[in-house]
Amino acid sequence: MRHRWALVLLVGILFGSLQVEAQVIKVGSVAPEGSPWDRALKRIALDWQKISGGRVTLKIYSGGIAGDEPDMIRKMRINQIQAAAMSGSGLGKIDPDWLVYQLPFLTQNDEELDYLFERLRPELERRMEDKGFTFLAIIKSGWLRFFAKEKVVTPDDFRKLKFFVMEGSPEVDQAWKIMGFHIVPLPPNDAFAALQSGMVEIFTASPLTAAAMQWFALAPHMTDINWTPFTAGLVISNQAWRRIPRELQPKLKAATRSVLADLEAEIIELENQAMEIMKDNGLIVHQVPPAVQEEWEELVQEGFKILVGDVISRDLYEQARQIISEY
To answer: In terms of Cα–Cα distance, which of 143, 149, 298 is closest to 224?
Structure first.
């Protein structure tokens, strides 16, 4: 009888310890419900549940339910949510050095971007951890282009129009102003109405985003220049990550990166489809001659005077330039 009670007690202790380890992680995302990015997050949730044997569960809050990116950062800091899928600009709000990937023309194709990220990853992950967050994975989601209500090829064409930028980045806003552009900072959810009313006349977006949000219908002129990569990442608070058993952490990271690698391939295909659909529905694509691209590249150096040194560490920027030069 004593042995039987001892066994019951032992099972109860073990079960109780498993219950303590069980963890629900709330993940915020501005990606629309049912979008490729949202479906990828749900795949990650299934993988984490399977790998952990149910000890780690992700609960996804899509479509901005958890707020915009500054809101999600604040909520992670106070443990209202524990993780978030964020754009490269959002990562820069945690640690401004992440904006090095967003600098126009620093990288000009996917291969350069991949090489730069892998070389800088250890340093940037360390800096992110110092700010209270563990970086899980990054994804490329195409390249930002200009979409406008009228033809835009040169910087002078651009200066004539009112430019939608996401609010909340005063240093970036100042860089645009230094380059001579008329910016209108707004929340992302206000962009469509602003385009309808004429409050803004030009914006940057990946072709897939412009198609998915139907913004291109109001700004049917696309400037065919790889302005800057559209990157995103998944981060989790250090507090939540450290509660996950150490032996599970590498497996969960690997699963996350595998899903996002598959998503990258899917996005390439979807973006090609989106381009064809937009062209069939009135999109006009304007090529940029090499001489004009050089004009753009020279102009952004003016903006870099605001960003490099004051926002992005000069040593990291110089390191990034050297890495691209080596590549």
So the answer is: 143
